[in-house]
Amino acid sequence: MKLSCLQENLDRGLNVVGRAVAVRTTLPITNNVLLATDKSRLKLSATNLEMAISCWIGAKVEEEGAITVPARLLSEFISSLPSEKVDINLSPQTKTLGLKCARFEARISGVDAKDFPPIPRVEGGIATKVEVEALRQAIGQVAFAAATEESRPVLTGVDAEFDGDTLTLAAADGFRLAVYKLPLAQAVSQKTEVIIPARTLAELNRLMADQEEAVEITVNPEKGQALFRLKDIELVSQLIQGSFPNYSQLIPKKFNTKAVISVADFLRATKTASIFARDGSGIVRLVVAPGGEMTPGKVTVSARSEEIGDDVGDIDAMVEGEEAKIAFNGKYLTDVLSVLHEAQVALETTNPSSPGVLKPVGSDNYIHVVMPMFVQW
Amino acid sequence: MPIKALAPQVVARIAAGEVVERPASVVKELVENSLDAGATQISVEVGGGGVSLIKVTDNGAGIPSEEVELAFERYATSKIGDLDDLESISSLGFRGEALSSITAVAQVDMTTCADGEKVATHLGLEDGAIASRSTKGRSQGTTVTVLNLFRKIPARLKFLKSIATENSHIANVVSQYALAFPEVKFSLSLDGRVALRTPGSGKLLDSVAEVYGAEIAGNMIELKGEATIPRVTGMVGLPRVSRSGWGYLSFFINRRWVNSRMLARAVEEAYHGLLMVGRHPVAVIDILLPAQDVDVNIHPTKSEVKFANERAVFSAVYRTVRQALAGQTPVPHVEAANKPVFSSVVRESASPTYVGAGADLSFPPLTSAAALPVLRVLGQLDNSYIIAEGPDGLYLIDQHAAHERVLFERIERQRAQREIEVQGLLEPMPLEVSPRQEAELWSHYQELAEFGFAIEPFGGKTFLVRAVPAIVHDRDWAGMLRELLDSLSEGDKSNWAETVIITMACHSAVRAGQALTDSEMRELVRQLEQAATPHTCPHGRPTMIHLSYGQLKKDFGRT
């Protein structure tokens, strides 16, 4: 293998695939990054066996070849080099990768590319496209609701349902549920439902940050893996096997009280209250009071702690229905309020022990359900 | 075979079987006799595990020449006179069985010289009959030599364990009396080797040092039982010198060595939450009771006793020990490489209390002496320990144990105020349990509501969980619930509420190996400073280790 490429391209490529390098592993080679020539480009790949990322960068290839070297070492070395041309030369006998840039020269011992875990090919099944912006927003508003605790593996993933020209993403951790509908740029022939690890989607969101072209999504017929293809980047993820809870029945169909409030005000009041709720389990109490003839309605957000003290904040609201009292884990409220892009949110409740529903005002594609905490009033 | 009265030798041997179980029983009877005779020096020599030789020499009152033969008669004793005496026994022996029982199973020689006598009387007995009588020269006191124990009873001989085992039983008997009578000089030699020698200084700590060694003695605290009835005195070990067996618990009623599960339980209760699971305290406890309040005449060996008011005794022991510990609960110190000469840790104990019959068992507060100094967090070690600086040196804090303690107290407080924080489940979750867990869940699912679990039966071995305590909501609470049910079904049901709280605290506490930010560590240390019992986790493990500046200086050779 013999090639040359630009330091900044190589550095960026290593950063992209670096997210998939295994951290703690029993398979040492997954700490390595695979370098392989691919026609007139250099392909970099890394995998932690749950997720694999490949990235292609432009290169001037003189001799084909492939090798794996420790990812962190290579990445740190390349990032410290000046922004110039890097000459890469593999000595096949010693499996040593020679790197030359400006007046620096390094040799890194490698491991045969044949030993690198193969990255599954994802073909057949369904294939579709989604606009980057829509997908980024959907992941941002859904993935955080997935469970971090692993006793129910399906809940650590995001349920993705491809149906016609709609993709529905849903995540739940047993206490809250987030559902987001977005259009597919290319309709699917057959309705398909898979569970994608929330971690994978978080990585995908990072990779999409500087992308503009639509993302290609492919799921293999066995529903074992999904491939996300971006410009010069491919992310292959294992899918979580199992069936996701039927969440549509968990979304309350009606309400007794509905308050429309400013997202920013609600977020500030909740954050402030959470400071006082920190010693316990973060209980934030909401009292929704309808307005009178002349007075606006309001939502009172409060928290108290035996040792510390208490805090009460009022927010103006347009209230429909009767007075309501409900308590939530403050974190669940701040999580959702801080990802909403809309100016106002509607909070719908039925009683203190039934789930509350948050819907951004002005868009009907997102719904967030939170189960309350049971407290003495 | 027709019914007939048994021959006296047969009767004697049957009776002896009750008193003389093994060589250690002979030693016990003889040592008790010496103590009852007011001896201030008792030496015990043992050979061959006590089977070939037991020789007990004392400087007690001795037996007048004319009474020596009578001493070997069954039910002959100088210790009590009539029935009324039996109601108020102050001596260790009183049944008048010991010597006659021993002679029934062994060859016995006695040399005794009473006060005022010029020569000692020597009596040799074989098969329960007097074989020889002569006079010998010796100072006041008695020497009893027991030879060839059980030689005539092969079955009993076979039943005996190895020489080493029998020796250890004998050593235990002598040790116990050495602890009960610190003013008596005890010496024990096993096959010519000195196994124990107490100074007879009258100080319990000296006896403890001889019996258990300097390390334990250096970690004993004195119980100062006030003048109550019953009065509890003695010493107990600090939690850091716990032992894995029960063998370090010694109880004496009016200085009589007794075995009592009830007393052991009282002490264990007092150490509750201070010792790790499976660890037991060291304690030497004497209980002073009016003789009529205790019945020692239950068993010929008198090792079991009955109390007129068991509950009062239990709570007296519990309170006295708990109070002594309350003044301590220290931070374990880092062990010095070269141990210094042990210094006694004897402190004043807390205020006096009268322990009556209906005394309640509320915990004396473990606060004042237990409070933590203000600590400054320096960093984290191995993602498991928080390093902090205090005014008196370095503290290493086990993050999991510390958090467990904080959460334990929080849950306890919330429960007491009926303010357990409960998080509802969006969708009721079915919980499948094993048959054993099912039984436990059936009997407790309603009580679990107090802790924030809303659980209802759903048919068969399935239950529906509708809400969980907020403190565990983002943990594997289903796994925790199963583990809890297992430990409830195995363990002691009496404090199941505490088991629930401990399990909840343990499962929601930060794990070892979890990296913490500076502010998280500061917050944890702040909460620990406010805990009522900051030094141990609910399982009894220490939450912190203290390395004093003095210790650092010493280890760096700067002193």
CATH topology of the largest domain in chain B: Heat Shock Protein 90
Domain unit count of chain A: 3
* Reported CATH architecture of the largest domain in chain A: Roll
Number of strands of chain A: 26
The total beta strand count of chain B reads 22
**What's the overall average pLDDT of chain A, rounded?**
93
Shape of chain B: elongated
Main beta sheet of chain B:
8 strands, mixed
The number of helices of chain A is 6
CATH superfamily of the largest domain in chain A: DNA Polymerase III, subunit A, domain 2
Q: Classify the fold: give the CATH topology of the largest domain in chain A.
A: DNA Polymerase III, Chain A, domain 2
Largest sheet of chain A, order of strands side by side?
14-11-12-13-25-24-23-18-21-20-19-22
Give structural notes.
By secondary structure, chain A is of the alpha+beta class. Chain A folds into 3 domains: 2-115, DNA Polymerase III, subunit A, domain 2 (DNA Polymerase III, Chain A, domain 2, Roll), CATH 3.10.150; 126-248, DNA Polymerase III, Chain A, domain 2, CATH 3.10.150.10; 251-370, DNA Polymerase III, Chain A, domain 2, CATH 3.10.150. Helix content of chain A is 17%, strand content 44%. In chain A, the strands form 3 sheets. Chain A has a 12-stranded antiparallel beta sheet. An 8-stranded antiparallel beta sheet of chain A has the order 6-2-3-4-17-16-15-10. The longest helix of chain A has 15 residues, at 263-277. In chain A, 42% of the residues are buried. The model of chain A has no long low-confidence stretch (mean pLDDT 93). Chain B has 559 residues and is α+β, with helices and mostly antiparallel strands. Chain B folds into 3 domains: 8-197, Heat Shock Protein 90 (2-Layer Sandwich); 213-332, Ribosomal Protein S5, domain 2 (2-Layer Sandwich); 372-546, MutL, C-terminal domain, regulatory subdomain (Ribosomal Protein S8, Chain: A, domain 1), CATH 3.30.1370. Chain B contains 17 helices and 22 strands. Chain B has an 8-stranded mixed beta sheet with strand order 5-4-3-6-2-1-7-8, covered by helices on one side. In chain B, a hairpin with a 2-residue loop joins strand 4 (120-126) and strand 5. In chain B, helix 10 (261-270) runs parallel beside helix 11 and helix 12 packs across helix 15. Chain B is elongated, with a radius of gyration of 29 Å. The relative contact order of chain B is 0.09. Classes of the chains: A alpha+beta (377), B alpha+beta (559). Chains A and B meet through strand 26 of A and helix 12 and strand 19 of B.
